[in-house]
Amino acid sequence: MKRLIVLLLMLPLAAAAQPMEWTEIFPGIWKGVAGRPEAYDLLTAAECEPFARSLERLERTPFPFDPAYVNAEVSDGNTYLRFPLERDEQIYGLGLNFQTVHQRGRILGLHVDHYGGRDNGRTHAPVPFYVSSAGYGVLVNSARYMTFYIGTAVRSDARDAPRARDRNTDSGWTSRPYSDAVEVYVPAEGVEVYLFSGGTPLGAVERYNLFCGGGALPPRWGLGFTQRVEKLSDAAQVVAEAEEFERRGYPLDFIGLEPGWQSRAYPCTFEWDTGRFPDPAGLTRQLLDRGVRLNLWMNPYVSPEASIYNDILPHTGTHTVWCGVVPDLNDPEAVRIWTDRLRQGQVDTGVSGYKIDEVDGYDHYLWPDVARFPSGTSADQMRQTYGVLAQKVTARLYRDAGMRTFGLVRASNAGANNMPYVLYNDYYSHPDFITALVNSGFCGVLWTPEVRSSKTAEEWLRRFQSVVFSPMAMINAWSSGTKPWSFPEVAGQVKYYAELRMMLMPYFYSEFARYRFEGTPPFRAMALEPGFRYDSRTEAGSRDLEDNPYLEAVTREVKDQYMAGKFLLVAPMFAGQTSRTVILPQGNWYNFYTGRYAGNGEEITVEPGLDFIPVYVRDGSVIPFMQPLLHSPGPDDKVDIEFRHYGNREGSYRLYDDDGTTFAYEDGLYSWRTATVSRNACGELTGSLSDPEEGKPNTVGRVTFRFMTRSE
Length: 712
Ligand code: GAL
Hints:
Elements lengths: L1 H15 L1 E2 L2 E5 L2 E7 L6 H5 L5 H4 L15 E5 L2 E7 L6 E3 L12 E4 L1 E2 L9 E2 L5 E4 L3 E6 L5 E4 L30 E6 L3 E8 L3 H11 L13 E4 L6 H14 L5 E4 L22 H10 L3 E6 L10 H4 L3 E6 L2 E4 L4 H12 L9 E4 L22 H22 L6 E3 L11 E3 L6 H11 L16 H11 L5 E4 L14 H13 L1 H14 L4 E3 L23 H7 L6 E3 L3 E3 L9 E4 L4 E4 L5 E4 L2 E4 L8 E4 L3 E4 L13 E7 L5 E7 L13 E9 L5 E5 L10 E8 L5
Parallel strand pairs: 8-9, 15-16, 15-23, 16-17, 17-20, 20-21, 21-22, 33-37
Antiparallel strand pairs: 1-4, 2-3, 3-14, 4-5, 5-13, 6-10, 7-12, 10-11, 11-14, 12-13, 18-19, 24-25, 25-26, 26-31, 27-30, 28-29, 28-31, 32-33, 34-35, 35-36
Helix pairs in contact: 4-13
The structure holds beta-D-galactopyranose (GAL).
């Protein structure tokens, strides 16, 4: 009897540290469950539905590692996870990092926060998804603050253990011995884990994106140019701004109004300031008639002077932000009251979207972890998901109105992949903004390296050149009042790039459609590019790779160049630089502007001069360009397309088309047309575009082909 009790007491302990069981839920995607997962997690907050249509068509891939080496242990209300790491493996992702791309050897405490200058896990989108250079990804689906030990901790039962060395005599001793695991601390009694086996790192990311619903498809106008005006601008100044863009011939698709459109801000009323904006509906219409939309800044914290204050009060948290109440976005009544307010006189008059600020916020002004919310969502879970909830409910507002939106938000997390929002912040380091763009593609979010102001014309142009190769081409002049032409010395070059952005609209729109339907991030790291190896930057260094492979790897991260869509390799220049190195993956690469050969699988040094941001194109690329219109074309417009071919190889491009503004594409009202460049009997390159599909939207006018390398 006594023995049985001892056995029974030991059972839970013995059962606790066990390999996880995995169920394949889509080809190459497995779900594992540890302990008892909580009802509220990142994917339930986002309410994302896997994009089954695309997922079911994917090839089966093998389970990515030995399942016996994954451990899950639940104890004291916490879950402890271990995943394997091989010696030559690199780890990417785990959220929107600004200074690092390689995460092996790092410890990250994932926590939604305004980025504070260090990659420690506190960031705008601390997405608990990592991607391995071995071609798989891991999502730990908890809305708690989790800690990831990414090849830092060494267990006594490690399979591939480092050997102890004598520091007295062994110069190879290190304070950071080799670790063969990623370990995760989850402060909850259980958690769901998803594994994505992609064959390649890009394949893993695509599966992750599709599993979370596919990527966001902006309206066409979202890919044009946007200017945010000074915070206290009034209606007349906004109209004057739109007129000036037109008069000077700079493209403009939407204007962002900053806090001053509201009668009170920080906290907000969500009501127009009738002094500055006496006729908001008239203004919105007047701008729409000129082809310019409005986007409205806000934070969700409700001012005591807001008309919705008394109604929403019972549906808010125990703590305030700047004396404004915090709507519980898991309480349907709070959502109804808040979104009704946004609908009336804003969405229903044609306002195109919102900039949802401060949903990240620093600890000292957001609600503390002791706050309570009526829905029962804990304060930490609310912190991890508030940006996602705000995106979800505002995106629904637009879906209900049958209009696509494209807005800005300062916090996100896993599962928000297909929400039409772009992240931004106040940190304003140009190089680090580019690293964020590189990392955004690992974690299912979009990021804009916005331009605000600059100390010099050179810096202004350099920042402008890179923002046009990003998800949102934006000047945020809320405090500076800058305009594209503010630095006359470089106004011509700025205009060239603003026009180039418009010319690339068919390309970027098609690339976003690939994100939507196939999960391919439109802006992504070189590590996701075929023919690129993470260790291609330098020769192996002097360190003992047997014991410290990750230490070498971190010095080789490539964080200042990225892929923009299928074909463009963008290598931004920063103020003060006159030359830079660019790593070209395997295969022939060509200069985007001239079509000239640039290199193959090598590191080149370039001196492009101030006028150009270095951009390279793969052999056989076929890129659609349109005319530099001042506003995005409407659903009934026809635009002429010039397909530019680079290099000597035959190639093709799938051009996406739909009405550009509604959700009709979800009912099949879209088409992919294939532009093909091939060699004819005389060996000359010629191009053709497949016919439009009967009954589908068709915005393509005259089609021409230009052979950039041949015409050199
Ligand atoms: C900041 C935001 C800026 C601008 C400003 C207006 O929080 O990041 O982009 O909107 O608020 O007060």
